[in-house]
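USER: Fancy drafting a protein?

ASSISTANT:
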Amino acid sequence: MNQLVAMWYNENKKKFSKEDCFVIEQQLSKIGEDKVLLLRSIKIKDPWHGFFLCLFLGWLGVHRFWIKHTGWGVLELVTGLIGFPIFAFIDFFRIRRMVCKYNYNLILPYIFTDVDTRKLVV
């Protein structure tokens, strides 16, 4: 792993789950320097930011809009406005994992060069 890849990985490994980190680390050793520069330009979201968004604005669904889950964000907004924010309560316990999975899906096209990434997105 070259120095740029190692630096990017060390800066961002806390923004992915441990299982995803294992796969990312393996794939990063195979990519070229041009892909590393593209990776550095991606804005990877911090799971703690999602946690605090859910904590303070969860009843409005802001954390779902933040990770591009617009449909769920609208649902949480409507249920939150009518006074039944059950989805925000559930997401409070799941948001960090959701942000980690969002980050993993965001970098998939950049780290997997030899396979069809559409099959890997869960």
